[in-house]
Write a structure and sequence with these properties.
By secondary structure, the chain is α+β, with helices and mostly antiparallel strands. Helix content is 56%, strand content 18%. The chain has a single domain, classed as DnaA, N-terminal domain (GMP Synthetase, Chain A, domain 3, 2-Layer Sandwich).
Amino acid sequence: MKSPNPKRLGDLIPALLEKLGLAQGLHDRQVVERWPEVVGQKIAEVTVAARIKDGKLWVSVSHPAWRNELTFMKRELIDRLNAAMGEEIVKDIIFR
């Protein structure tokens, strides 16, 4: 029997992920994958976003001078990542 209000599968998936407790993990993964796009080519060449847990994004940096520079840019990078995701996911960035 057809539902009187059919819905598109794509519209149902976000609610299903939320209900199953998988939405946050998906968002976290998207932050890591979008790191190069959000920070730009220059920063992406010297960094690798490794993982995110409890709002902390862990980023490997190839050179100490870059680690120092990125520390000064931390707030801006957090704001750019969260803006790209459309919600506050990243609360801190740990450069190592």
